Amino acid sequence: MAQSPALLFLLLFIFATKTIESTQIFFPRATHQSLIKQAKDPKLSIPYKTQFFPQLLDHFTFQPQSSKIFYQKYLINDHYWEHGAPIFVYTGNEGNIEWFAENTGFMLDIAPKFRALLVFIEHRFYGESLPFGKDSYKSAKTLGYLNSQQALADFAVLIQSLKKNLSSEASPVVVFGGSYGGMLAAWFRLKYPHVALGALASSAPILQFDDITPWTSFYDAVTQDFKDASQNCYEVIKGSWAELQAVSEQKGLAELSRSFRSCENLHSMYSARNWLWTAFVYTAMVNYPTEANFMMPLPAYPVREMCKIIDGFPPRATKLSRVVAAASLYYNYSRTEKCFKIENATDAHGLHGWDWQACTEMVMPMTCSKDSMFPPSTFDYKAFSEQCMRKYGVLPRPHWITTEFGGNRIEQVLKRFGSNIIFSNGMQDPWSRGRFQGKSFSEMKCEALSLFVFFFLEKNGTVMECPLRYKGAILLVSSLRRCVEKYISQHHSTGH
Amino acid sequence: MAQSPALLFLLLFIFATKTIESTQIFFPRATHQSLIKQAKDPKLSIPYKTQFFPQLLDHFTFQPQSSKIFYQKYLINDHYWEHGAPIFVYTGNEGNIEWFAENTGFMLDIAPKFRALLVFIEHRFYGESLPFGKDSYKSAKTLGYLNSQQALADFAVLIQSLKKNLSSEASPVVVFGGSYGGMLAAWFRLKYPHVALGALASSAPILQFDDITPWTSFYDAVTQDFKDASQNCYEVIKGSWAELQAVSEQKGLAELSRSFRSCENLHSMYSARNWLWTAFVYTAMVNYPTEANFMMPLPAYPVREMCKIIDGFPPRATKLSRVVAAASLYYNYSRTEKCFKIENATDAHGLHGWDWQACTEMVMPMTCSKDSMFPPSTFDYKAFSEQCMRKYGVLPRPHWITTEFGGNRIEQVLKRFGSNIIFSNGMQDPWSRGRFQGKSFSEMKCEALSLFVFFFLEKNGTVMECPLRYKGAILLVSSLRRCVEKYISQHHSTGH
């Protein structure tokens, strides 16, 4: 656990990025491959009991099939727990729950102090929590039940039932989550304040919807991270896309396959492009100041390391050879890969669920500006929705998330409504641009009536996110703990 | 409008009341008949434009059929409105929207002062807002989409779209509702604080679920209302049920039909019983201090008038003859009925939807204590759920409402979360026992950070509910208006 970064990430779904030169849409499949690897080999350093909860298929309709039961997985650790003490719940996101349990150190760190029960609930349609077993991903008819509101209702029902079964109805509940799980944690506190008295939402881009956050912001942030590491590195990456295109056109896919050390001959230049794209984006997302292994095994400050590789080539080396070498740091830091599965990466069930969510509710428009290190692109909603229709037979609902959960002028809304939500973000995290932009770190408040608490580490700080055992983050961690402590002591003094 | 009571009622669904002597379950059909009458003849004294909004069938799943569109009716009056001024929305309940628009004077009263737009949104599956047209009530397959969460989402989508179409996104929205509509208004502010900045929830028994409120409380309150009018009246009614049974057994249904002036021969003693029961319950619910015509045309203080009839009979008159005469005040105050349709009252579509809701989510257990004016009864959940299964093919979810919306220790929850919700209740209203029990009238607060505001008129006061043009309620009305005013001025000063 000591080396695991504690805060998590949204599985990226870069959709409908209509580049100027092409309408090819980028799906970072390679990532899924890496996730599957990890997911199949969870090394839980703390013993959790695995349980399954009989959950309703559809909380929001009462059709005959709505009452179908499926078994939702959750992990539970009562090692520190005392009856009546707090319950810390991780609101699982888009993957196997073990993966998130393994990578969420903060809950375990603070559990002894609070004598807290630890519960990690798997999100429906991920991991083993498959309402229709192997058929869960078959079509929109089954996938239709995969969405955030149903997931939140699952959490509420499970938590209430668990408290009842433990005869510990008065136990205060605090929810924790990172990335999409962080969005769920924040939304859970907003929608179910009677179930959870506080939420810690890490790296939760709840404002990445509609036009609340500029559409270029995500890739601007990635670009800035690389530019900050080295101006030359940025320029090489920016120039590499044209080279890639040229090599593909002039020398063909066979040559491209060799340059990329592809295990099989590539069928499309775009596979190679996506492979590079994925490496840069995910590395920016996991740019931890410590060696870590969340998405992939990576050294400390992997963006800097990638740029060192790019900058370290002899002067006449091509841009393409440099970026391929840099991307290989992401895919092969452990040096176990002899070649790369660039096309047709394995895609087991339970992990591509995010594509479905992005095609229905999680519509996060993203574009690349002309200054981006990626090729400039626009967001073509029509192409995107047509693609979703082709793929799943449903149309996206691009304004639903902001209607259901809000987002516009959220600061004003939360000022008069809601409390006990901690939004934490590292400012280098590409997702941080779609974050809740509340008060600065110095204005952090935990008072009983504080309406929200918001932290970030300054951009010029050495840490990006909050890796919990990294010493630069000690203040942050202890502040987080103090907040949770206050929520709970409020509860004990007032009954909630 | 001047004579209309302004605050509304829950259509009563007295279910699974297993009386000691019988398992017959009471459905107050006669009421539906009266509602249909009213609903068919709306006399809207203010001109509303009728509009239809293309609404999604299912907001919470993404199955292919979820995106089916139906047309949701709403009424709109922009007579007082200025661009950017507030929008007052009535969150429609279980009936035709015209009926609620006609009987909600407060919104119209305060509209000129606020230059407010008035919008009354019909609840899905009621009135003309039928997702499957005439087939809407066919089975659980269609009815499955009728529930409160879908209704709240409808309101949110419609309001957001309306504001956009009016190019008035910054208009503050306040929601209003009575009875079930009041529950919806309160829940709407809790779940959609980014859409509505305040709510006025009148007579909203949001705590009538699970075992939050004692199960006898509703009938205890009805009983108390009659007892307060006259102890003898209470005793006569209490004794009449045994007489009814005896007459039925000894003299038969033909004699019973004559006593009740039934248009057709009765087939069951229970029809007569339900007819009486309905009259007493609904009269207690509409015990206005002014002549009114909400459920039925009735004189001022109709409970007192009923008791005068009961007490005014010659000493040797039977209890049964007295209660039949008293009930006739409810059914025939206008003296237009030559006989009563006690069995097989017409039941048009759109009005028995409450039975479905009560069989699925709105499980409000109610029993009669031995001191009740009604026969003692228990709540037999098993019998109730079996009945729902037989009738609709679905089982109730008795704990769902409290999971989704809370209820237990709600005062503590709202203390730290939520704001700008006015709960108003008259203490004689039988539903008031399941109300939000917050601060007393004198402690009412409207301050920016007030967490909730709660009013009631003291039980020893002359008014029960808040009939808005009744002079005893002037203070209440002006306070309500001041609260709404504050919510809106907060909005103007801070952007929300």
TrEMBL record, chains A, B:
InterPro entries: AB_hydrolase_fold, Peptidase_S28, Ser_carbopepase_S28_SKS. The keyword Lipid metabolism does not apply. Keywords: Glycoprotein, Hydrolase, Protease, Signal. One of its GO terms (molecular function) is serine-type exopeptidase activity. The keyword Glycoprotein applies. GO terms for biological process: proteolysis. It holds the Pfam family Peptidase_S28. Residues 1-22 form the signal peptide. Belongs to the peptidase S28 family. This is Lysosomal Pro-X carboxypeptidase. It comes from Nelumbo nucifera.
